[in-house]
């Protein structure tokens, strides 16, 4: 009979590679009163049948650093524990069959340069030298990544678990969690089939069972299982233990050496979902699903095309193992908003092995420090609203999600499945007027009017529609449906005092004024970027981005003790913007930051003199049941409908920042050039003040600048490498076509050196081609 302690400071549920990594890193940080529970045996759920690929280069710098750490840890762990992880730094080759894929590889190479990672574009012939078993007649080029590696997932898990045990962690196998004891916002105990354990913190690392475990604690974990296929072949000539990993994304396949043969797997364009999160079997360890050669054939046909010898090579083993996927292809990490002491590390979308080391460390640091120590916004569980856990939504979306692993990562790509979750009251009317919609946090939002949403690395056909809308806003008046804005009401005794602590700017302003303010963490870096309107002595109206509702409300409660009311679904917001906006509305052009109640077309609205486009205008907050009336009045008066693509271009011409692209937990107002938007000049205490003062005294390591491409031909999308005098100097965070400027504009963080960041010969790398840029600390449009 398995014995359990009566209590533990931290209980981790799930003994796969991620749970073992969290335990290891908690112990390394000095938190050793940790109990790791596994319902079967270590690595027996999803981990054991993972392919074990470790590719450090990711789409973002924060994601890249996370996997870089994983690779370093896996290479060094055996020396500490005496158990091999099977890690080999063999390198990786990614091949391109099409011109579009070659552009992607060129952009990836530029990302690597921005992150100081070794990476080389090579010819097809050189690719074959690196990976002899393949044919290259149909290839246009390839990418060589010396930092890629492979690992044995089961051995890695055992080594991490041993390292945790050596530091005092208790590991118990064959213990199933059946529920949780709770007290208000906290979990007080973990109930198991071997007895109850009191605890201070719970960490849900239960893999594809994480959604069911989360439900037991009242926590939303949006993930769904899909079947993931690969085979292990008989011996293949030309393979050896140090053969690099090879990926052929145009054929949806990957290859790695295993005992003289090849692991051949992939991510088919249309995945095969498995059971719903609440319908997973138990027990289910070290088990596979029934072979499905018909479904796998699309991958095998492409594998044979790349490695012709496979047509006459036998198969040793067929693997069909379920893995969990999330709606946006990013994993889930962090403290659950529903419970103060429940953390989640799950939904790794087939990158759990590569991510486990860095993710385990990041989550352990979050638990110990009380907040993240780096930018985790892209994987933060709080990016999802509760509706995202709906099983039918998840089943539809993850079919697409798995298929996107090797699809071309087009700029501004919109999901095709599980749409129309949330709609503005204007949706049907805007659709009639030619709106093409994108989605954010479930909201359908107009991107542009007229044309079709087509993807390209160059200038899309719909750019003409966006340009028309930009011109309308700069010269006349445009109306933007911004209903998706998050909107919160804060009121009651103590509201001002609490907001004064959370807001870095001074919000003790007269009633009828609006303050633009950051919310900072203890490190003095960004947690949010909002406007706060004072509507009464102890009442406030907060407006934030569409994507951050859950995150914002959680931050207000944890950091400020504020129980805000979410009014997002109750009100629409119509942005009426342009030099003719005052005339259209019949109002004087009031000073920025004024807010008042008034009427438009007989409807009471809140008019806030605020702009995200740099033109005179108002954000009109309207009850959703009257929004259509107000919009019709504006349209009849001459306002032109405009979408979020135009909004992006307009805000970049004015140098306006966005969370989390420019304003992230890795950057402070000092680096962002927004110290003026804080109360640092006065003596008001606020969260993060001490760290911000220290950052200002030390000076920035990076500086945010506006840039304009001298040549109007290239198209920038964000993520491009910036070079100074031919050497990597930074990276574009956001970019778009600027119709008023006549070329692409953007914002970029540049490294601060001895000379001013705006000096030197500055260029931007666009898929291997370099173009001169003008860089300034001022906005390119006055």
UniProtKB/TrEMBL annotation:
GO-annotated cellular components = cytoplasm
Q: Which Pfam families match?
A: DAO, FAO_M, GCV_T, GCV_T_C
FAD dependent oxidoreductase domain sequence ranges:
10-366
For the FAD dependent oxidoreductase central domain, which residue ranges apply? 370-424
Q: Domain (Aminomethyltransferase C-terminal): give its ranges.
A: 703-778
Domain GCVT N-terminal as annotated: residue spans? 426-680
Tell me which family the UniProt entry assigns to this protein.
Answer: Belongs to the GcvT family.
* Official protein name in the record: FAD-dependent oxidoreductase
Q: Which organism is it from?
A: Nocardioides anomalus
């Amino acid at each position: 009979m398995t014995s359990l302690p009566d209590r533990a400071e931290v209980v981790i549920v799930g003994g796969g590679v991620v749970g073992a990594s969290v335990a290891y890193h908690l112990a390394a940080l000095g938190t050793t009163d940790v109990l790791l529970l596994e319902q079967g045996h270590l690595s027996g759920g999803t981990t054991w049948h993972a392919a074990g690929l470790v590719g450090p280069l990711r789409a973002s710098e924060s994601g890249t650093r996370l996997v870089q750490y994983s690779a370093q840890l896996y290479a060094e762990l055996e020396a500490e524990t005496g158990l091999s992880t099977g890690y080999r730094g063999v390198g990786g080759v990614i091949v391109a069959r099409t011109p579009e894929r070659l552009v992607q590889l060129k952009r990836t190479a530029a990302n690597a340069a921005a992150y100081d990672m070794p990476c080389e574009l090579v010819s097809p012939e050189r690719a074959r030298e690196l990976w002899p078993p393949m044919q290259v007649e149909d290839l246009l080029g390839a990418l060589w990544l010396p930092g890629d590696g492979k690992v044995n997932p089961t051995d890695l898990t055992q080594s991490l678990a041993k390292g945790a045990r050596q530091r005092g962690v208790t590991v118990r196998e064959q213990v199933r969690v059946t529920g949780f004891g709770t007290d208000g916002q906290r979990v007080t105990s973990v109930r198991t089939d071997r007895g109850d354990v009191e605890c201070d913190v719970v960490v849900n690392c239960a893999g594809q069972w994480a959604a069911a475990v989360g439900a037991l604690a009242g926590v939303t974990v949006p993930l769904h299982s899909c079947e993931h296929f690969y085979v292990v072949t008989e011996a293949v000539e030309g393979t050896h233990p140090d053969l690099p990993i090879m990926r052929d994304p145009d054929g949806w396949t990957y290859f790695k050496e295993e005992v003289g043969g090849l692991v051949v797997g992939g991510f088919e364009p249309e995945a095969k979902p498995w059971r719903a999160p609440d319908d997973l079997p138990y027990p289910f360890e070290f088990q596979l699903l029934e072979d499905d050669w018909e479904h796998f054939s699309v991958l095998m046909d492409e594998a044979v095309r790349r490695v012709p010898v496979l047509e006459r090579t036998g198969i040793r083993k067929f693997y069909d193992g379920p893995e969990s996927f999330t709606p946006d292809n990013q994993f889930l990490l962090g403290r659950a908003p529903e419970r103060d002491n429940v953390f989640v590390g799950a939904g790794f979308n087939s990158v759990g092995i590569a991510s486990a080391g860095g993710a385990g460390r990041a989550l352990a640091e979050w638990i110990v420090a009380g907040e993240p120590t780096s930018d985790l916004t892209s994987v933060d569980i709080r990016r999802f609203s509760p509706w995202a856990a709906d099983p039918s939504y998840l089943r539809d979306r993850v079919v697409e999600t798995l298929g996107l692993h090797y699809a071309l990562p087009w700029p501004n790509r919109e999901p095709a499945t599980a749409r129309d979750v949330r709609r503005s009251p204007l949706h049907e009317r805007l659709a009639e007027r030619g709106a093409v919609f994108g989605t954010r946090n479930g909201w359908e939002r107009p991107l542009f009017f007229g044309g079709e949403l087509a993807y390209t690395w160059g200038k899309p056909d719909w750019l003409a529609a966006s340009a028309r809308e930009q011109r309308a806003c700069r010269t006349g008046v445009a109306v933007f449906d911004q209903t998706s804005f998050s909107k919160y009401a804060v009121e009651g005794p103590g509201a001002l005092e609490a907001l004064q602590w959370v807001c870095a700017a001074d919000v003790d302003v007269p009633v009828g004024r609006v303050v633009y303010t950051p919310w900072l963490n203890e490190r003095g870096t960004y947690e949010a970027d909002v406007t706060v309107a004072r509507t009464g002595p102890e009442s406030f109206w907060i407006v934030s981005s569409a994507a951050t509702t859950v995150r914002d409300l959680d931050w207000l409660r944890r950091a400020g003790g504020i129980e805000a009311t979410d009014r997002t679904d109750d009100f629409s917001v119509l942005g009426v913007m342009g030099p003719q906006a005052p005339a259209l509305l019949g109002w004087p052009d009031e000073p920025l930051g004024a807010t008042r109640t008034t009427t438009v077309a007989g409807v009471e609205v809140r008019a806030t003199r605020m702009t995200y486009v740099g033109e005179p205008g108002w954000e009109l907050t309207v009850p959703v049941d009257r929004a259509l009336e107000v919009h019709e009045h504006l349209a009849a008066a001459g306002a032109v409908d405009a979408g979020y693509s135009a909004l992006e271009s307009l805000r970049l011409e004015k140098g306006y920042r966005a969370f989390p692209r420019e304003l992230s937990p890795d950057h402070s107002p000092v680096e962002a050039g927004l110290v003026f938007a804080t109360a640092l000049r006065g003596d008001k205490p606020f969260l993060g003040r001490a760290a911000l003062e220290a950052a200002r005294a030390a000076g920035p390591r990076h500086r945010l600048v506006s840039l304009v491409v001298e040549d109007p031909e290239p198209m920038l999308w964000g993520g491009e490498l910036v070079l100074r005098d031919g050497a990597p100097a930074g990276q574009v965070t956001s970019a778009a076509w600027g119709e008023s400027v006549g070329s692409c504009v953007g914002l970029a963080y540049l490294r601060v050196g001895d000379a001013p960041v705006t000096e030197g010969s500055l260029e931007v790398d666009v898929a291997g081609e370099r173009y001169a840029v003008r860089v300034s600390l001022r906005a390119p449009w006055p």
